[in-house]
Specification:
This protein has 300 residues and is an alpha/beta fold. The chain has 14 helices and eight strands. It has two domains: 229 residues, TIM Barrel (Alpha-Beta Barrel); 36 residues. Helix 4 runs parallel beside helix 5 and helix 5 runs parallel beside helix 6.
Length: 300
């Protein structure tokens, strides 16, 4: 079931900051932080699961179980990347139903051609706007709960210009999208135009490490008309750099004795994060029951 708290937060005017999660360790860490939502990134999930570029290689089957696991393993509402809906209108219906059944709270569908390309990279091509509007209508009809939010993304800015991207954003909102996502605006001025010309909750994609869009503060984003800021790459970029540094130290030194303080998570803390105390308590309970001669049967 979709989590109603995300829709309620948007209605209440809360600005949503959502970190990118890409595996269950990142999901568990982020879930404890107190964010209002988590963003399950397609780039990071495809990279961590398949080790390939986010270029339309991953299928619905590859992704739905992982998105469901993120949602079911988190207490925080999950916004999930669903690329193009993995095909045509029938595929979109199937994708929406699968993601919603898995416990996702919001699904992001984009208007790229198949196979899609990662946002903020060159060569993205879009389908006709009216075709995408039909996808949004199908997505809205397919969901079981109004708490399951439809995010319509357009990649038209990079190839067709900002005017066309704004036109598409308005059209997708009219088709029923709960949230509009104009991908890759290239300046604060462009973002101000988007905020002023599209009457819908808006999502800003903040790609750390060299994205096409300036990363504005949440205060500025809220002031110019945005409602959600996602940081899809933050987690996997941070983890990749940390791994490079730790592995390089091991290769150079031959052991880990001189790793700088604070480089590693404490092993006991990692055990707690992953839920080992519950496992140990379970084992202890049933080991004692066994020693007592079979639990309930022994009591009889």
């Amino acid at each position: 079931m979709a989590d109603p708290r995300l829709k309620a937060a948007l209605r209440a005017g809360e600005f949503i900051v959502a970190p990118g999660i890409f595996d269950m360790i990142s999901a568990r860490v982020a879930d404890r932080m107190g964010f209002s939502a988590l963003y399950a990134t397609g780039y990071g999930t495809v990279a961590s699961h398949l080790g390939v570029p986010d270029a339309g290689i991953a299928t619905y089957t590859d992704m739905v179980s992982r998105m469901a696991r993120f949602a079911q393993g988190s207490r925080t509402p999950v916004i999930a990347d669903a690329d193009t809906g993995y095909g045509g209108l029938l595929n979109v219906r199937h994708t929406v139903q699968g993601y919603e059944a898995g416990g996702v709270t919001a699904i992001q569908i984009e208007d790229q051609e198949v196979p899609k390309k990662c946002g903020h990279t060159p060569g993205r091509r879009v389908i006709p706007a009216e075709e995408m509007a039909l996808k949004i209508e199908v997505a809205v009809e397919a969901r079981k709960s109004d708490d399951f939010l439809i995010i319509a993304r357009t990649d038209a800015r990079t190839t067709l210009g900002l005017d066309e991207a704004i036109r598409r954003g308005r059209l997708y909102r009219k088709a029923g999208a709960d949230i509009v996502f104009i991908e890759s605006p290239e300046s604060e001025e462009e973002m101000r135009r988007i905020g002023g010309e599209i009457d819908a909750p808006l999502l800003a994609n903040n790609v750390d490490g060299g994205g096409r869009t300036p990363i504005l503060s949440r205060e500025t984003l809220a002031a110019i008309g945005y409602n959600i800021a996602i940081y899809p790459a933050l987690g996997f970029l941070a983890v990749t750099r940390a791994l490079e540094q730790a592995y390089a130290h091991l290769l150079r030194e031959g052991d880990t004795n001189a790793l700088p303080a604070g480089t590693l998570c404490d092993f006991a803390a990692m055990n707690e994060l992953m839920g080992f105390p519950e496992v140990w308590a379970f084992d202890a309970k049933w080991a004692k029951a066994g020693q007592d001669g079979g639990g309930r049967q022994a009591a009889e």
